[in-house]
Specification:
Blueprint: E1 2-7, E2 18-23, H1 26-43, H2 60-71
Antiparallel strand pairs: 1-2
């Protein structure tokens, strides 16, 4: 896999102006799909029916609607976890990957 820094903005003022993009070979992408398909066929029957992530025809809107409906019942509680990976690549230390961090 190759990590390539791509500019987020037209001008560079700091290292956070770059976005790390992973270029995965096509063979690996095909292998990942095969493995994911196998895992899903094994895993889906055992998932909780109230899990919304990585399920076909499910969304965060469905999770919120179900939660609000559930909270209308007296003496109930809800456990929720929402994760946002939008800035995940901003936490990568580029120097450890051997990328030039000097501007």
């Amino acid at each position: 896999m190759t990590i390539v820094p791509v500019l987020k903005k037209s001008t560079v003022s700091c290292i956070n102006d770059y976005r790390s993009v992973a270029l995965t070979p096509i063979v690996m992408k095909c292998f990942e799909r095969l493995v994911m398909r196998h895992i899903k066929t094994q895993l889906l029957p055992s998932l909780d029916p109230l899990q919304f992530a990585y399920r076909p025809n499910r969304s965060t809107d469905d999770a919120i609607t179900t939660t609000l409906t559930h909270l209308n019942n007296k003496d109930t509680y809800v456990r929720m976890l929402f994760i946002d990976f939008n800035s995940a690549f901003n936490t990568i230390i580029l120097s450890l990957l051997g990328l030039n961090t000097s501007l």
